[in-house]
Each structure stands twice: as structure tokens, then as C-alpha cells.
Amino acid sequence: MKSIKVKSPFSGIQVDYMQESDLPAVMEIERSSFTAPWDESSFREGIRSRNHHVYFLVIRHQQNPVAFINFWVVEEDAHIANFAVAPNYRNQGVGKYLFAESLISIRKLGGDHVSLEVRVSNIPAQYLYRQFGFQVVSIRENYYMDDHEDAYVFRLSNLREVDLCIDRGTHTHDR
Ligand SMILES: CC(C)(COP(=O)(O)OP(=O)(O)OC[C@H]1O[C@@H](n2cnc3c(N)ncnc32)[C@H](O)[C@@H]1OP(=O)(O)O)[C@@H](O)C(=O)NCCC(=O)NCCS
Question: How far is CA 38 from CA 19, 26, 111, in A?
Fold first, then answer.
């Protein structure tokens, strides 16, 4: 069984469902993270639709959104569709923490097989996914519409067998 321990990066950090009031900060993160960002209506409609298969989570630090993730879960299958950390919060454990919290949520919702696409050039994200046991299962050629870069499809096929432990009481950094 794969065992992963993750610590909360700072005190004053909170994982929550995304609210419409988070959207200005979320859109700033989205636009600074991707060359072909989602538009605001995709987030707004996702939040409003209350589709019980689709989830948008944020991390707030001192009440301000600093990272978000979007995933869906249908029976045992889950897919992570969007995930980003604000540039000035990267490399401090925020992404790893939110990803771990999301996998725990996915597991509670019944998900066991989790997939996602990532640019072949996105080494930081791939490093993070591999730490959780994700592996490349295929390549989608010309997947990204803006520059035709290929995507790796990463998959974790047995989330229930991953021993995920989040320590929310001690912190890797303090800000
Ligand atoms: C990918 C991303 C979410 C990672 O978030 P983060 O908060 O910076 O990541 P963390 O600090 O939690 O680091 C997680 C792991 O990735 C590794 N990592 C982070 N940045 C890295 C880099 N530049 N190069 C190599 N590894 C890196 C770290 O080593 C860390 O593992 P460790 O602490 O156990 O060594 C963030 O870089 C980001 O938002 N990028 C732009 C959007 C994006 O690419 N989203 C994913 C689309 S598929």
C-alpha cells in the first residue's frame, strides 16, 4: 500500500467549497496559470448548477483564495479538470495539500480511479502527481488547442489502497 503524509502549509489556511465571491481571485489565479484560461462563466455555472458530480474547492489563506481545484466523480471514476495555485504561493506545499484534500474528498464520494491530463512540459505538476502514485497511461497528441502541445494522461487506478494522512495541525511554513 502506498503511504503519503502531507502537512498543512501554514496556519490560517482553510479548504472550502468555492463561492461566487471567490471568483475575482480565482480568475486572477486562472489567468496567471494557463495560456488558454477558462472563462469566468465556466466557474460560475459550475458553482451554480449544484451538479452533485462536479466539485470546485478553494484554499483560502487569511480569507483570500490562493488555490483551487475542480473535479468530478461518477461512481468509481473521477477526473481532475482544473487545478492551480497563485504564483506567489507556489513551491510552499499548497498544491500538494489541496491535491491531498481533494483525493480524500474523491474517495469519500466513492471514487477509486482518478485521471487527469497534463502538458508534457509541465514538470512541477507531473512531479506532484507522481508523488501520489499517478502514472502516465497514454499520450493525447495535439491536445491543447492554443499551441497543440501533447498531454499525458495520468491515472491513479486504486485510490482506496492509498494510505493518505493529512496533518492539519502542524505546518511546513509560516507566513
Ligand atoms: C502545479 C502546481 C499546482 C503545484 O503547486 P505548488 O503549490 O507549487 O506545489 P507544492 O509546493 O505543493 O509542491 C508539490 C511537489 O511538487 C514539486 N515541485 C513544485 N514545484 C516544482 C518545480 N518547479 N519543479 C519540480 N518539482 C516541483 C515539489 O518538489 C513538491 O514536492 P515536495 O515538496 O515533496 O518535494 C503549481 O505549480 C501551479 O499552479 N502551476 C500552474 C498551473 C498548473 O500547471 N496546474 C496543473 C495543470 S495539470
Answer: 17, 11, 25
